[in-house]
Design a protein that fits this description.
This protein has 474 residues and is an alpha+beta fold. Among the domains are: 85 residues, no CATH class; 167 residues, Aldehyde Oxidoreductase, domain 4, CATH 3.30.365.10. The chain is 23% helix and 25% strand. The protein has a seven-stranded mixed sheet with strand order 5-7-3-14-11-12-13, with helices on both faces. A five-stranded mixed sheet has the order 9-17-16-15-10, with helices on both faces. Helix 8 links the parallel strand 12 and strand 13. The radius of gyration is 27 Å and the shape is globular.
């Protein structure tokens, strides 16, 4: 096995601060040398032209050929492993205030009252915001990518989403109030003094429960909790193929909900500049332009007045592509109070409020002829959107699967119905492939089940149905 040694960073020809170290790997099975490889490769390396190991950190393809030029080295590693990276929590601005959010401890309830009187008087507290403040500012809408019609020309339904809950909470973690104080501890202490009276409502936590007749309704604008009804493919051609099939495989699958949970906690610091009426965001993000567009939509602030500062990001996975409600409330506070407002979430908040991924329930059918050739595939796809629409979830659970419905197989007829459903759970967004791994999983499970039912080698069934080279581009 390769050994990991701590080596002086100067061995790599780099300057370092006192006590800084780098890590290097060497594998005696490659070159027989007991000298650790440093951060660069030089002519003294005994492994030049040596066999490539099958295992270990330095594994490469056996067909790899050496280059005459020096290898291109990664430039960010030394800075990150020596603790000099800059993440969202590392930004600190002069005079900054600290935000803390009061969150719902129930999945579905009416908000009878929010009493912030005691919290507002707590030492160090500058302001307490509630859903009334969010609604007064007009912060009740968020950007959604889907702008194309669904089945029968029906548009997607986009219920309001206040930046702080107003009138009702719809999932555990829904933010009800924001405390802004001189210190993070003062904001947290004051949050304990906010008194929220709820009237509990029945909750639905699965898509099938949510679509059932008489189910509790999350939004007036989305009857039967249906956000979008979308289809792709040729329904009539699929019906005809199934009618003539020698064998039909059916399977119901759960593509389970996941919490991406990046190592870096979500955080943002917002500064308002009254000179040019601009907002500066120091935030963990996945794309600057995407963040600006979403924030502009949510707050009606022009995009050119939104300045995004980002350096290092400790994991994104689709989850960091959203402009979250907390950032909008920080904008409101930063402008009103005239000081930067910083918020860094806890790990618990991350599980309750950072968008989740996957959460699809799929019934799939595969039609085959007597020779094991695929004739058609039909899908009934239920995508859980959680309590509110995110920017990307509606696209990752409709458009993306439809573009990958054949997988790697020649399937003459395809049809999928994709329904997006509201539930009393954390909102869902794009995650690691954004619907494409989900459809691949569904297809391959159908193929495996068909092989088992036909008592055929799964590899042979796949071989018979692969898209042939001559059919590309397919």
């Amino acid at each position: 096995m390769p050994r990991v040694h701590k080596v002086n960073a100067l061995a790599a020809g780099r300057t370092r601060s006192a006590g800084a170290v780098a890590f290097a790997v060497y594998n005696p099975s490659v070159c027989g040398s007991r000298r650790p490889c440093s951060a660069r490769v030089d002519s003294n390396c005994g492994g030049k032209g040596a066999p490539i190991p099958r295992h270990g950190l330095s594994r490469m393809s056996a067909t790899h050929k050496a280059h005459d030029h020096a290898p291109a080295m990664r430039v960010e590693d030394f800075r990150l492993v020596t603790g000099t990276g800059k993440y969202a929590a590392d930004w600190n601005l002069p005079g900054q205030l600290y935000a803390h959010f009061v969150r719902s401890d129930r999945a579905h309830a009416e908000i009878v009252s929010v009493n912030v009187e005691k919290a507002a008087k707590y030492p160090g507290v500058k302001r307490v915001y509630t859903g009334e403040d969010a609604m007064r500012a007009g912060y009740d809408k968020f950007f959604v990518i889907v702008n194309w019609p669904g089945r029968g020309g029906e548009p997607i339904r986009k219920p309001p989403r206040p930046a702080l809950a107003a009138g009702r909470v719809r999932h555990v973690g829904d933010a009800v109030a924001m405390i802004v104080a001189d210190s993070a501890l003062a904001a947290q202490d004051a949050a304990e003094l906010v008194e929220v009276e709820y009237r509990d409502l029945p909750a639905v936590v699965t898509v099938e429960e949510a679509l059932a007749e008489g189910a509790p309704q999350l939004h007036e604008a989305a009857p039967r909790n249906l956000a979008f009804d979308y289809e792709g493919g040729n329904e009539e051609a699929v019906k005809a193929a199934f009618a003539n099939a020698a064998h039909v495989t059916r399977l119901r699958l759960e593509v389970s909900r996941v919490a991406p949970n990046p190592l870096e906690l979500r955080g943002c610091t917002v500064q308002y500049d009254p000179g040019d009426e601009s907002y500066h965001f120091y935030v963990c993000i996945q794309g600057i332009n995407m963040m600006r567009k979403q924030l502009a939509f949510a707050t009606d602030v022009p995009e050119d007045k939104l300045v995004i500062h980002a350096q290092d990001v400790g994991g994104s996975f689709g989850q960091r592509s959203a402009a979250y409600p907390e950032y909008c409330m920080q904008m409101l506070a930063a402008k009103e109070l005239g000081r930067p407002v910083r918020w860094i979430s806890t790990r618990t908040e991350g599980f309750m409020t950072d968008t989740h991924g996957r959460a699809n329930t799929v019934t799939g059918e595969l039609a085959l002829d007597r020779g094991g050739k695929f004739l058609a595939m039909r899908l009934d796809w239920l995508g859980d959107m959680g309590a509110y629409l995110s920017a990307t979830g509606s696209a990752s659970h409709t458009r993306n699967p439809t573009t990958c419905m054949t997988g790697v197989y020649r399937i003459p007829a395809l049809y999928g119905r994709f329904r997006l459903v509201f539930t009393n759970t954390v909102p869902v967004a794009a995650y690691r492939g954004a619907g494409r791994p989900d459809i691949a999983y569904v297809i391959e499970r159908l193929v495996n089940r068909a092989a088992a039912e036909l008592k055929m080698d799964p590899a042979e069934l796949r071989r018979r149905n692969f898209i042939p080279p001559g059919a590309f581009p397919y």
